[in-house]
Specification:
With 281 residues, the chain is α+β, with helices and mostly antiparallel strands. The chain has 2 domains: 2-167, Regulatory protein AraC (Jelly Rolls, Sandwich), CATH 2.60.120; 172-280, Arc Repressor Mutant, subunit A, CATH 1.10.10.60. The protein is built from 11 helices and 10 strands. The strands form 2 sheets. A 6-stranded antiparallel beta sheet has the order 1-2-9-4-7-10, covered by helices on one side. Strands 3-8-5-6 form a 4-stranded antiparallel beta sheet, with no helix packed on it. Mean pLDDT is 87; it is low at 166-170.
């Protein structure tokens, strides 16, 4: 088995990104080799290049053969097993992020069996995954290139299946709200301000945002502010009051209480601890 997992960005930051690469690999399985039952925090797609096997998910079993692919969404418990007589060779790609769920749902609507679909030539996708494996490394260049290759792979798959253009999701109210928060997180922003900006009531925004992104607008905004604050603490020498102002807190004490609630430690201790860890790596 050949496998590569991107470790440049931690899982917390990946989960609130739009659409980010997690891992990929290629494997020739032994007869009856299986994985699971197991739950993962990221989505993944397996392309079957040769042979066959079975995917078990949500209480059902789906036979999968050459030139098909199977999808396992994040949070789903699954088991997949190679055939005893014709064990599969497959390649896979894993990804996560808020927008990734929309792309996955679009794919899953392209066939009668949500979790198993046909593709014209699985070796086409294997070649692209092997390209990622060839550049595998720990640097920023690998991170950026692997994400670019993943975008190309998923875009090609959507195009092959004739899927609806995922850009349509950009017109949704939750997406507009998320974009607004990403552009204005550094202001003293309230969810009522976000709702007003997209032209809906705050309660309605909370309901549709939760439905699309599986978190409330407040949770998303808090995570966004925390992520930006952590980046500033790690990569700048700005004093705490400037970091606080930069993520929408006019009161440094209020920012420190927020940061401690979210992480369990103060901003000053976080900066010191993370820098010490980075120096020892």
């Amino acid at each position: 088995m050949r496998e590569y997992t991107d470790k440049l960005t931690d899982l917390t930051k990946k989960s609130i990104s739009d659409f980010v690469f997690y891992n990929c690999g290629v494997e020739q399985c032994a007869p009856n080799q299986f994985y699971g039952p197991k739950r993962r925090d990221y989505h993944f797609i397996h392309f079957v290049v040769k042979g066959e096997g079975v995917l078990e998910i949500q209480g059902a079993a789906y036979p999968v053969h050459c030139n098909q692919f199977f999808i396992v969404p994040a949070g789903e418990v699954s088991t997949y097993r190679a055939s005893g007589s014709a064990p599969w060779r497959y390649c896979w790609i894993g990804f996560l992020g808020i927008q990734s769920t929309q792309f996955l749902n679009t794919l899953m609507q392209c066939g009668p069996q949500r979790f198993v679909l046909n593709c014209q030539d699985a070796t086409f996708y294997q070649t692209r995954i092997e390209n990622i494996l060839r550049i595998a490394g720990k640097g920023l260049s690998t991170h950026l290139r692997s994400n670019g290759m993943m975008y190309d792979l998923i875009g090609t798959l959507l195009d092959e299946l004739g899927a609806d253009d995922p850009a349509e999701f950009g017109l949704s109210i939750p997406f507009q709200a998320r974009q607004y928060m990403e552009l204005h997180y550094h202001d003293s922003l309230r969810i009522s301000d976000v709702a007003a900006a997209v032209g809906v009531h705050a309660n309605y925004l909370s309901n549709v945002f939760q439905e699309q992104y599986h978190m409330s607008p407040k949770q998303y905004l808090d995570r966004l502010k925390l992520q930006k604050a952590q980046e500033l603490l790690l990569h700048t020498e700005h004093p705490i009051y400037i970091v606080a102002n930069s993520v929408g807190f006019t009161d440094p004490l209020g920012f420190s209480k927020f940061f401690r609630r979210m992480t369990g430690i103060s901003p000053t201790d976080y900066r010191a601890q993370r820098r010490e860890i980075n120096e020892n790596i």
